[in-house]
Amino acid sequence: MKAKPTKEHQWLQRLAGDWTATSDDMPTWSESVRSLDGLWFVAEGQGEMPGGGAATTIMTLGFDPKRSRYIGSWVGSMMSHMWIYEGIVDGNVLTLDTEGPDFWSEGRRAKYQDIITFESDDRRVLTSRMLNEDSTWRHVMKASYQRK
C-alpha cells in the first residue's frame, strides 16, 4: 500500500527548491530541498560556520496522519546530536518542538523550537529558540531564506 500525500504534505512542498540563507552571525549558506514522492522533504544545507570551517546540515520533514503532527529530524556536521522534530502548522508558520543539549549549561538538556515562517512563496525565515529553566525563551539563531 502506497501512502498518498495529504494537504499537510502540500504545505511542506513549498520548501522544495534551491535557497540562499543569510544570518547576522553566519556567512551565506546554500540549501537544496527535494521531495521524496511528496511525502518527505529533504533539505541539505552547506556553508561556513562562524569562526571558519565548512559545515553540512540535513533536515527531513514529513507529516504523520495518524498522529496529526509534522515530524522530522536535523543533523549537522558540526555536532553529534540528532534533533528529532514534532510540530504543527498554523497558517504560514511551522513550529517544530525538539530537545537537546543546553549550549549554555553543561550537562543540562533543554527544550527547543525551530520555527519556519513563510513570508511569501520565495522567502522564509527560520528562528530557533531554547526554553530556559525559568520558562522564558532564549533566542538561539535566525536565518532568512531567499529562493534562488
Automatic annotation (TrEMBL):
One matching Pfam family: DUF1579
UniProt protein name: DUF1579 domain-containing protein
Source organism per UniProt: Microvirga terricola
